[in-house]
Amino acid sequence: MKIHTNNLTAADVWAATSGLPGVFAEVKTVGSRSHARGLEVTLEGTSSRLQNNNSGDRAATWDEWGIVMKNLFRTDPDAVWGSVKSPAYANEEDFDYKTGDRFEELTHLDQHKNHNWKFVGIPREQECQCGAVRRWI
Ligand SMILES: [Zn+2]
């Protein structure tokens, strides 16, 4: 996934994964038309699923991505994940809303590796029985 940022570097991404056993980031620094740079981030993690890039490496779980993203937002609250026009997360506040503040304190020990997302009657919101929430706009 791509981050548009004015102050994060590849070293920040690696640092953001350092507390997560089994999680490794591959980072490619690329251009960004809206920000100082873009970073293409691939995470290897502890999901039971494989990455969809034929690398044979395990994917990161949704929670592992969330912990890494939150760590990076602590350094750059204005980073944009995805495309600037149609961002997955437009900034830290948007991320906190769309993830129901799950990553304020979540550690890898508390993660649920396989969320089972279900609609519970609220438009543009899904919940897992573990309490995780995801929202979109
Ligand atoms: Zn869950």
- Shape annotation: globular
Number of domains: 1
Main β-sheet: number of strands, strand sense, barrel status? 5 strands, antiparallel
Number of helices: 3
Strand order in space, largest sheet: 2-3-1-4-5
Q: Structural class of the secondary structure composition?
A: alpha+beta
N/C terminus separation:
19 Å
Order of helices and strands: EHEEHEEHEEE
Mean of pLDDT? 96
Radius of gyration: 15 Å
Unreliable sequence segments? none
Bound molecules: zinc ion
Please report which band the strand proportion falls in: under 5%, 5-15%, 15-25%, 25-35%, 35-45% or over 45%.
15-25%
The beta-strand count equals 8
Helical content class:
10-25%
Give a quick summary of the entry:
The chain has 137 residues and is an alpha+beta fold.
Task: Give an account of the 3D structure.
The protein has 137 residues and is of the alpha+beta class. It has one domain (2-100). Helix content is 20%, strand content 24%. It is built from three helices and eight strands; from the N terminus they run E-H-E-E-H-E-E-H-E-E-E. A five-stranded antiparallel β-sheet has the order 2-3-1-4-5. A three-stranded antiparallel β-sheet has the order 6-7-8, with no helix packed on it. Strand 7 and strand 8 (133-135) form a beta hairpin. The longest helix has 14 residues, at 62-75. The protein is globular, with a radius of gyration of 15 Å. The model has no long low-confidence stretch (mean pLDDT 96). Residues 112, 115, 128, 130, 132 line the site of zinc ion.
